[in-house]
Structure formats: C-alpha cells, structure tokens
Amino acid sequence: MSMFGPGIVVAMGATVIFAFLLALFVAAIFLWMAAKLLGIENASVGRAVIAIVGGGILGMIVGAIVGAVLGPLGSIAAFITSIWVIKAVFDTDWLRAFLAWLLSGIIAILVMGILALLGMFTIGALAAL
Q: Does residue 122 surpass a pLDDT of 70?
C-alpha cells in the first residue's frame, strides 16, 4: 500500500514540467543577452526560446542518427546542429552564432557563481544569529 495518493504524483509531475519550462526560459534569457551583447539585430526572447528548444530537439535527433552510424561523431554533429539553429533563428553568421552560444554559457556560469556566493554569504550571516 502506497503512502502517496494520485494527487501527490500529479503535483510532482506538474512540478517537474514547470521546472523544465523555467529552465528553458532561463537558458533563452542567457542566449538573448549574449545575442544582444554581440550586436545580433534580430535578437529577441521569443527567438531565443525557439533557438533553445529547436536546437535541443534537432540537435538530439541529428546526434542520435549520426551517433548510431558514426559513433562519437554524433556529439559533434549535435553541437553543429545546435549552432546552425541559432544561426538560422537569429539570421546571423556562423561565428556570431557560435559566440552567442559560448557567451550564453559564460553568462550562465557568472550568474550561477554570483548567486552561489550570495547564497553562501546569506547562509553564513543567518548562522551567526
């Protein structure tokens, strides 16, 4: 006999879906910021969401197909596909698409680092009380 009823299972599923959608939106914000910093004219949050979702899905499909045939080259094909989607969605060149991808990762690392530092300082300050 289970302790958890169907309501708990539905709530946990809804939480997972919400967290996934929030993560996609946050990743899109970082990509949009990177594209703006690089001077990509067609950069918008909506396009960034499309690039994140489309690049993820198409990259996964291409990576799986190429990986099934050519093994480790699947990861490289998935990466190139993701960059191509950013290039196509933002209507930019390969270099700016790659730099937008790279800069979005750097921005994400910086933001997470700052939040972690603030969190540690907050926890440390609360522990002193």
A: no
Report the half-sphere exposure of 32 (CA within 13 A, side-chain side). 14
Query: Does 2 map to a domain?
Result: no
- Number of separate domains in the chain: 1
Which position has the token pair 């690039």? 51
DSSP 53-93: HHHHHHHHHHHHHHHHHHTTHHHHHHHHHHHHHHHHHHT--
**Residue 87 maps to a domain:** yes
Average pLDDT of span 116-123: 71
Question: Which residues lie closer than 8 Å to 52 by C-beta, 6 or more apart?
Answer: 24, 27, 28, 31
